[in-house]
TrEMBL record:
This is Leucine-rich repeat-containing protein 51. Transmembrane segments: none annotated. Its main location: cytoplasm. GO terms for cellular component: cytoplasm. The keyword Metal-binding does not apply. It comes from Phocoena sinus. It is found in: Cytoplasm. Keywords: Cytoplasm, Leucine-rich repeat, Repeat.
Length: 192
């Protein structure tokens, strides 16, 4: 393996920042230039970014159609994507495409239009997810919002920019016992 082609996921590259670009569809990212930050973006020989963070906040995205394809065009190692910021868009659901990024540890979805609390269930498959934001979505108004999220995603340590405490976990467990009925296991009578 060529030393320059090696990606060290512990080294944090600057984000690939497409915030405030009035992006309507993910394909628009391919023709937009990312914002420049204090540190320059590093690129692989292929011309793709070495970043592990993708910021798409404050745009007008209402779905993530072609997201995987676009991300693979922008990032040299899309499998190392650790931070996605989709805050302040027009998303009405949590697209399952987000669950394909197994190294994702930070996901910002605040300030969207996510309607159903059950959408959070999709994120349970992300083994490294530690920080999640969902405030400013209609689901925030549902009873047990925080407790439901903490029960569904027990590995997160920061939720809505607030640290998750032991007391939060205890409250969530009590809430779960009082509000979430265990699934009944149906046994076929013929099988007995």
């Amino acid at each position: 393996m060529n030393k320059q082609d090696y990606t060290n996921t512990s080294v944090q590259e600057p984000p690939l920042d497409y915030s405030f670009r009035s992006i309507h569809v993910t394909q628009d990212l391919l023709s937009e230039k990312p914002r420049t930050g204090l540190r320059p973006l590093r690129h692989a020989k292929s011309g793709k970014s070495m970043s592990q963070s993708l910021w798409l906040n404050n745009n007008v995205l209402n779905d993530l159609r072609d997201f995987n394809h676009v991300v693979s065009q922008l990032l040299e190692h899309p499998e190392n994507l650790a931070w996605i910021d989709l805050s302040f868009n027009d998303l009405t659901s949590i697209d399952p495409v987000l669950t394909t990024f197994f190294n994702l540890s930070v996901l910002y979805l605040h300030g969207n239009s996510i309607q159903r609390l059950g959408e959070v269930n999709k994120l349970a498959v992300l083994p490294r997810l530690r920080s999640l934001t969902l405030h400013g979505n209609p689901i925030e108004e549902e009873n047990g919002y925080r407790q439901y999220v903490l029960c569904t995603l027990p590995r997160i340590t920061t939720f809505d920019f607030s640290g998750v405490t032991k007391a939060d976990r205890t409250t969530a467990e009590v809430w779960k016992r009082m509000n979430i009925k265990p699934r009944k296991v149906w046994i076929k009578h013929n099988a007995l």
